[in-house]
Amino acid sequence: xxxxxxxxxxxxxxxxxxxxxxxxxxxxxxxxxxxxxxxxxxxxxxxxxxxxxxxxxxxxxxxxxxxxxxxxxxxxxxxxxxxxxxxxxxxxxxxxxxxxxxxxxxxxxxxxxxxxxxxxxxxxxxxxxxxxxxxxxxxxxxxxxxxxxxxxxxxxxxxxxxxxx
Length: 165
Fold this sequence. Notes:
about 160 residues, 7-stranded mixed sheet, 3-stranded antiparallel sheet, 2 helices
């Protein structure tokens, strides 16, 4: 039993100290983000419009400035087979739901002109349920990306959910 506790303690220590868990994957130097909060998931009917709001904290050292080379956005992501599991900066399978999206690959930019390190960035986008959409759950997956490169800052698995009745 003592040996098991020692092994478990060593494993936990290694995980906590691992730099791979503390740093974003492939993010440009100075860029990082953490999920903070979001609006509620939506239950909509055919033809209804709903709006999502999600907040991320700028945990990097670079300010995100809208309209500049440091701008970030909420990219559209889709599930893919293993080992990648998720691809971002892709065309949405629900492009016909878009109301105010920045582009077919980007839900939204920040509502703030500048998001300094340590501050919250707000992303807002709306969807409209097509008349011919089957009833069910629809997942709008996304990640924060640097717009200049399309690189995900820190994968968190964000998604918004619409249930169509």
